[in-house]
Structures are given as structure tokens and as C-alpha cells.
């Protein structure tokens, strides 16, 4: 048991900081509902406009486009009939009513989408367009986007090709993301949840906890067990039958 106790102490010293880090980061991550973390509570549900009754929808793809099509959807967007084509590779196109391809989303359109679809979206601090290869770290998706930064620190990302709000990144989301990186011990990509360092410290922490449980029950049994009585203590406990020196029977 002394060897177990020694191992337990050394493992506790080794895994104490990771265990504390897991507890603190976990507490931070669960302190707010996931809807507030993702910013979905800031999104405004924009009612869809009905299509005109006399409209005829015909989508003719150019011969140069040979990519498999995942979905085709036509809807009214800010008073204009738009057909959205999404391909299997994740890219998309927007077509006007006459079938011509719409260009990438402009800065003004991105601002209007945020003002219409996000609470507080009318208080814009700045806008910036990013390519698919150079997206910010808090977006981490390979697609061209407009970053619309609000005055309260929230970043709203609008797809330059899709014309939709792709993500809302609040200040709390960025704190959550940092805590998640600490929790899985991956601050670079914050995506790898199965790497050797994490597995090693998790295994050592489990072993330290197991040894602590074993030692706890062993010490409890030692305290509850009655002390052993020696032969000398038994002799002293038996009352003597010899008369006392000062008694009348003593001769």
C-alpha cells in the first residue's frame, strides 16, 4: 500500500494541472446555453415572400458547368427572384429570373442581410471580404465570406456566393472556443479530440483517481477495525483474587 500511496502522490502532482484545467474550462463552457454561444438567439427569422403566381421558373445551366447538383431553390430575396443552385462540392451559384448568373455578394448587400437578419445588425463597425483560403480563425470554413463586425464585438459572416448568414461569432463564442482548445489540449486547430498528449494525461488522471479510491477504502477499513489486544493487556484486565496487604485475611 505504501507503493500505491507513492504512485498516487506522484501522479497527482503530474495530472493536477490538467485536471484543474478540464474542470475550469468545462465550467466556463456550460455556464451559458449553447444557443447564446453560437449566436443563434441573435438571428431574426425573416418571413419568406410568396412567389408571383404567373412566374415561370426555368433553370438552364451553362454547358461549362458539369458539377453534380445537390439542390435547386427559388425564392424572393429583397424583392428579387433568385434561384440558388448548390453543388455537391459545397459551392453554389445564384441566378436571376432571366437565368443570368449573379456575381459575388457586394458589401452593400452583405450589410443589408445583416441588418435584416441579426439583432443589432444596424450598428455596424466595419466590413471586410475574405477569400476561401484566408478566412479568419473564428470562421474556419473554406469559403469566401464577408465579415460584418458589429459595435458589440460580434462578427457576422455572410457567404459571398451563398448570400446567407453562415455564422455568428460573439465575444462569448471566442472565449468558448479558446476554452475548448484548452479542454482538448489543441490550441492550433481546436478540432483534434484524439491525440497522444490528451490520451496520455487522461489515462494518467484515471489511474491516479483509481489509486486514490483504493487507498481511501483501505484507510477506512484500518480505522474501523478494533485494535488487537495483547496477552499482557488481557492479564492486566483480569481482576486479582489475592487479598490486599492491609486486609484482615492477609497473614
How would you characterize this protein structure?
This protein has 251 residues and is an alpha+beta fold. The chain has 2 domains: 2-32 and 182-224, no CATH class; 40-49 and 68-169, no CATH class. The protein is 37% helix and 18% strand. It is built from 6 helices and 7 strands, in the order H-H-E-E-E-H-E-E-E-E-H-H-H. The protein has helices spanning 2-29, 34-38, 107-117, 171-183, 196-224, 231-237; strands spanning 69-77, 80-87, 92-95, 124-130, 145-150, 155-159, 165-169. It has a 4-stranded antiparallel sheet. A 3-stranded antiparallel sheet has the order 1-2-3, with no helix packed on it. Strand 6 and strand 7 form a beta hairpin. It is elongated, with a radius of gyration of 36 Å. The two termini are 59 Å apart. The model has no long low-confidence stretch (mean pLDDT 83).
Number of β-strand runs: 7
What's the total helix number? 6
Can you give the mean pLDDT? Answer: 83
Tell me the fraction of residues in β-strands, as a range.
15-25%
Most strands sheet: 4 strands, antiparallel
Can you list the strand order of the major beta sheet? 4-5-6-7
Radius of gyration, in Å, reads 36 Å
